[in-house]
Amino acid sequence: HKPNIKDWLLHNEIWYIFHYIRHLRYVEYYKNTNKNKILFFYHFFRYKRLGFKLKITIYPNTIGAGLRIYHVGDFIHIGAQCHIGHNCTLLPGVVFGNKYEKATDTQIIAGNNCYFGLGAKIFGSIIIGNNVTIGANAVVTKDIPDNAIVGGIPAKVLRFKEINIL
């Protein structure tokens, strides 16, 4: 069997990630507008199926536009009580969550342009600023200011990014 572009595209994890995010956005749209229940259930089924296959759990209406997932690995979990800004990058093993998934008093809020390294864990009621980079295997348990680079267990600020404004 000679390899071709169609086989490569259909068995590439980037293709699956793209469709997972696409179905997630459709689920968000139909859930928020209540326009078409049949299309909602179709996209919800596809979103759940791809999430199971990729080991990704991202609840609807938790992440802003510009989500980037470069590749899949162990798992990615974004809890229902999270709010993540625009242009967020998630690597495998990232967990946003609380001890109890049904807890409504704790929220995790992350700003825009955040990068979450391989295996980063964010637990508790936390506010993460804009332009934050969280290193690999960091465990975040406290608030993080804007433009910070953090790492370690527990995570602490290693340094701040230089922002040049012209």
TrEMBL record:
<dbReference type="Pfam" id="PF14602">
    <property type="entry name" value="Hexapep_2"/>
</dbReference>
<dbReference type="InterPro" id="IPR005881">
    <property type="entry name" value="Ser_O-AcTrfase"/>
</dbReference>
<keyword id="KW-0012">Acyltransferase</keyword>
<protein>
    <submittedName>
        <fullName>Serine acetyltransferase</fullName>
    </submittedName>
</protein>
<dbReference type="GO" id="GO:0005737">
    <property type="term" value="C:cytoplasm"/>
</dbReference>
<comment type="similarity">
    <text>Belongs to the transferase hexapeptide repeat family.</text>
</comment>
<dbReference type="InterPro" id="IPR011004">
    <property type="entry name" value="Trimer_LpxA-like_sf"/>
</dbReference>
<dbReference type="InterPro" id="IPR045304">
    <property type="entry name" value="LbH_SAT"/>
</dbReference>
<keyword id="KW-0808">Transferase</keyword>
<dbReference type="InterPro" id="IPR001451">
    <property type="entry name" value="Hexapep"/>
</dbReference>
<dbReference type="GO" id="GO:0009001">
    <property type="term" value="F:serine O-acetyltransferase activity"/>
</dbReference>
<dbReference type="GO" id="GO:0006535">
    <property type="term" value="P:cysteine biosynthetic process from serine"/>
</dbReference>
